[in-house]
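Thread: "does anyone have the structure for this chain?"

Original post by V.I.:
We have the sequence but no experimental structure in hand. Need at least a predicted one for the grant figures.
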Amino acid sequence: MTKKTDPDGVGIENGNYFGFDFSIDNSNIVIIPIPWDVTTSYQKGTSKGPESIIKASVQLDFFDHNLENAWSIGHYTHKTPDYIQEKSSELRINAEKIIDHLENGGSTSDIEITEDLNLINNECKNLNRYVFETTTDYINRGKLCIINGGDHSVPLGFIDALSEKHNSFGILHIDAHADLRVAYEGFEYSHASIMHNAIKTDSIKQLTQVGIRDLCKSEADTIEKNQNITCFYDTHISEMIFNGKSWDTICNEIVSTLPDKVYISFDIDGLDPSLCPNTGTPVPGGLSFNQSIYLIKKVVEKGKTIIGCDLCEVAPGEDEWDANVGARILYSISNLMYKSNINK
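Reply from O.Q.:
Generated one for you, tokens below.
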């Protein structure tokens, strides 16, 4: 870390998360921005999430009750090539053509959108390969990684990279949506299909979902039939709280479903939409900010090791409120991930 970083001083706008100026060699955590917004099906803008979070993050104060001297652990910002966001913008035009076709009664098998679908599916596969290769390199160098999307399709390559290092782990999935659709809207790597794609990996032994409140029947059937999926629906969480059960008790129940190693996939729309009104598919209900952080804190307190994280679907909006919230989530979960590893 250079002399430019002062945890009690003014944040430095240097293009890095939190304005920190760590080198890769003296960092423990690598944050990888993936500005990709191809398959979002309602509101676009999540490709601007990483840049907006970087901008908002320099306004944070860096004291963290959960980790002493959290600012000093070493957060490094990966420099993602510009072509990724450029390609996302190009493909969004093709995606909107497909979505418009489907919303007007068309089918994914119609020949007039076949070329567009093949193009998007191939380019999404290329993105997965980039994320896989990038995270594999950092993992092999002993770094902890966080993917900052972008739409929720982007962490798949990272999950695949982790599965090559860890032969058994679980996913804690905070989201408004189950994301278990099969090739939603014809997109093989849709944001709505991330968990369907992820659980194909043999290393993933458990998927625990929290805050789910918007899903289709086929997804509900998948959850009910798959013994390796446990869903804490938002409605059921609320009912438990209304009937006097504490959030601490509920968190203990959630964490008890998870194996020793945990990957955290955090879609910002898992929160109450007052905290993320500009996300791609906001849904009434959801967790409060403090509930979500408390849950992740419980994962650490119960002795689990967080092997990786993602934070996705932040879209800044005009006032960039969502980015303000997202930056604080990113800082908190990165510190808790680090703490879970030093405990070992």
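V.I.: this helps a lot. The chain has one domain: 17-342.
O.Q.: and Residues 239 and 245 are 9 Å apart (CA to CA).
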